């Protein structure tokens, strides 16, 4: 059996200008990065001005296992299947972070015959967007501490600095000073910005500290936003690549789904909607994390109205979490008022009888349950799923966010916890209550919330599987992401700087003298 990287390396790639032509992108807006990837200038929106938006499809999942349930693979495979059926489709996914790639994942560009290419480039630096974001974030850190060193004209209270450093790697030894770039507010800002001016404004609103009277000190007070935007100018342009079957794909933005808002950029999604009839995108982990943030943060900011959602389930995840877990995630998606299709992601060792049983059990939840054999067969193995999605998109979408922005921050978090997690309520630490009062007093009451919690449970305890009942989640502290436009609530013991596993994927990676990369999967 061929590995993902062996399949990717034997694929015949089209020149990226051909992909751009297929997507009706004016070649004058294509900025080449070699033969097989390109940045698309934001001026492309002018050429799409009169085009209607296509249908937006979100791919999410049941509570995952550490091995992952193939959500990205299903996203790409579904887009390939739609293309095989004669539909104009576009993939929009996040850029992999080096931390997980070198840690547990070993790669995050799909798998088997449902990948985005060039796979090695996508997993390793791509067009350096994450490095640009890291540089901009750390520039602000440097300017903050330099201001204090040079006399502290703003009267910054050094005990109330809230801005840390970031790097794009999992390194538990740096948890006291660093976060991972994927959790940076600068990453969130890039993904939620509509254009350069919007990004500059958001960068200026970042709160880095408070003065001795409690007043927020912002990036604009340090006059940092212009230089930060300069470093990120190219990062804001979406990166065009291709699926293994030659369809267009944007890989742009990479916020984590558990410690950040978990969606690719607004710019990429909006551009893809102008270029295709169906745009298939993903959100990190399960419905309680990435999907909730996709609906309540990204769709609200961008004015997007999804047409349908795909819920990925697998035999391995059902073995750990059971069918009650699947039922809860279906229920969660229905809270948002959109049609749902279950995709049963077939793994190589799944028997037909196992898949049939899963299909029968999942169909009891009142939504179509379709086997997708897209790892082994690519788009061909996803045609039944594509047909079900086309039918779902014909239904009326009654999309609505989960909560009203006029609710207090406390009420929003409690709504997410009780409705989506199934909790009885929320326990608040003393620090969290102080944070709530502070943020509402500085004008952050009517913003969305981004709950940072474990992906391995509907609760805030990673060891609790299935559909937990009779529990409360603990909110230990909150963080203001004033530039991104939301407040982050930290649940349980979630960390913003992950560590590597005992045997990281990096141990198996290498490159030969002729430049052939091995070990990515």
TrEMBL record:
Pathway: One-carbon metabolism; tetrahydrofolate interconversion. Keywords: ATP-binding, Ligase, Nucleotide-binding, One-carbon metabolism. The keyword Nucleotide-binding applies. PROSITE patterns: FTHFS_1. Its EC number is 6.3.4.3. SUPFAM superfamilies: P-loop containing nucleoside triphosphate hydrolases (SSF52540). Pfam families: FTHFS. It comes from the Bacteria. Belongs to the formate--tetrahydrofolate ligase family. This is Formate--tetrahydrofolate ligase. It comes from candidate division WOR-1 bacterium RIFCSPHIGHO2_01_FULL_53_15.
